[in-house]
Amino acid sequence: MSTAISFAGTEFAYVGTRVLGPVDLGVRTGETVVLLGESGSGKTTALRLANALLMPSTGTVSVLGRTTAEWDPVDLRRSIGYMIQEVGLFPHFTVARNIGLVPDLLGWDRSRVTGRVAELLELLRLEDSLATRLPHELSGGQRQRVGVARALAADPRILLCDEPFGALDPLTRRELQAEFRSLAEALGKTVLFVTHDVREAVSLGNRIAVIDAGRIRFEGSIDEFDLSTDALVVALREHG
Amino acid sequence: MSLLDYLAANRTALLARTLEHLGLVGLSMLIAVAVGVPLGIAITRHARLRGPVLGFVNVFQTIPSLALFGFLIPLPLLGGIGARSAIVALVVYALLPIVRNTYTGIVEVDDTVEEAARGMGMTDRQVLRMVQLPLAAPVILAGIRIATVVGVGIATIAAAIGAGGLGVFIFQGLARVDTVTILAGAVPAALMALALDGGLHLLEKRLDWRRK
After folding, report:
1. Which of A75, A76, A105 sits opposite B122 (nearest CB)?
2. CA distances from A191 to A5, A107, A124, B32, B180 (A)
3. What's the confidence (pLDDT) of residue B211?
4. Closest to B132 in 3D by CA, of B147, B149, B113, B119
5. A192 in contact with B at a CB cutoff of 8 Å?
6. Chunked in runs of 10, what are the mean pLDDT values of chain B (212 residues)?
7. Residue of chain B with shortest Cα separation from A136
């Protein structure tokens, strides 16, 4: 299995202070790796390094065989699905225009974009009538579904997710997690998912990497996570 | 003679002065928007320019308008007697609200929306054109509205340097100690300010994405 995303000796410093790294981590094609950590642990920084919103101070981040320095950042971002906290839907775009954004940016013709939007509305179980609504007219769960649809729109091989379900009520969150997991599996997506929620990490990940103070303290499968005697992992299992 | 009688008797002059006044304000607002909005955008992109640019437009705001008109008279190219000086002065006063509101409007766009825009692969230009400017539009327009209303008032003083406009009645009235003549300039100017304020406010609401 090839590696879709790899961090190699990656460090990130902000005004002279190292906030991440050195980190070595590989995400294999088709798997979901969850970066689990508290706020301020550096997990969001790691995610932003993967789509060149940040560039490493030392080391490299490679995506689909090229380092982020070699990629044109705009091309790189258009080939990755991106989901963030609070969704970040464009409040002045209709649902359809939000979902069709990346295809639009990629210059797809109108009818192809419209067709793709209809497909995604169905895939995410959103009613057709929502297509012309503005995001503020939707429920939190619907907004998040639109966020997932938007990330999938141009059929990217990789999805980067930064606590996308964090703002939802527990019930809707579990429902969307389950749906997201089966979608990602069915579509064969490579996913790097960031969260502070242990239950979310265990339910979504094939592998978990625990990040603390900018370093990866544990990395392994769900079984290994469940059995680990590492003090940090034990604490997470018990209190997280 | 009552104000209405005076206005009726002088309606040709009133119309000409009103059009002159609108011309002064309209042209100077067009120039101020063409300069101020790009300046406001520029200082969101280049933090180093922010202090100097805001300081510069702020300082002009503190110069009393009559004095500024006076300073402009001896200036070559920009100044002199007449409409050119008046327009330069009006542009200078209009810049502060327009630059500041453009800057504020863009900076206040929700960070997550901007991050999503960049993270999904918009270029800087696309972020500006598709996300920041549309979302900041009501705030920018509010700045233009303030500048316009203030401009209508300041333009009355432009009559002092021979730029015409409704201020002509006001200065004539002052010279003759004639309240009716003063009012013949002041009331139409006030009505013009109210009308422009209302019209721009409607436009502001139409540009707001929250509209139903």
Report:
1. A105
2. 9, 25, 18, 49, 77
3. 62
4. B113
5. no
6. 88 94 97 97 94 92 88 84 90 95 95 93 95 95 96 94 93 94 95 96 88 55
7. B210
Does residue A71 sit at the B interface (CB-CB below 8 Å)?
no
Q: Give the integer Cα–Cα distance in Å for B42 and B33.
A: 14
Pairwise CB contact (< 8 Å): B209 & A92:
yes
| Cβ-based contacts of B113 with chain A (< 8 Å) | 88-91
CA B77 to chain centre: 22
CB contacts of B131 in chain A (<8 Å) are: 90
Q: How far is A136 from chain B (nearest CA, A)?
A: 8
Share above pLDDT 90 across residues of chain B, in percent, rounded to a whole number: 77
Name the β-bridge partners of A195: A36
Exposed e or buried b for every residue in B69-95, given b needs 16+ CB within 10 A? bbebeeeeeebbeebbbbbbbbbbbbb
- pLDDT band for position A31 (cuts 50, 70, 90): very high
CB A191 within 8 A of CB A180: no
ipTM over cut 0.90: no
Residue A20 φ/ψ, nearest 5 degrees: -145, 140
Best CA proximity match to A156, nearest among A189, A114, A120: A189
Contact yes or no for A38/A212 (Cβ under 8 A): yes
Contact A62, A8 (CB under 8 A): yes
Judging contacts by C-beta atoms under 8 Å, the chain B residues touching residue A90 are 113, 116-117, 130-131
In angstroms, the separation between the Cα of residue A39 and the nearest Cα of chain B is 16
Question: In chain B, what residues touch A92 (CB-CB under 8 Å)?
Answer: 134-135, 209
Q: Classify each residue of B43-62 as buried b or exposed e, where b means 16 or more C-beta atoms within 10 Å of its C-beta.
A: bbeeeeeeeebbeebeeeee
Which chain A residue lies closest to B113 (C-alpha atoms)? A88
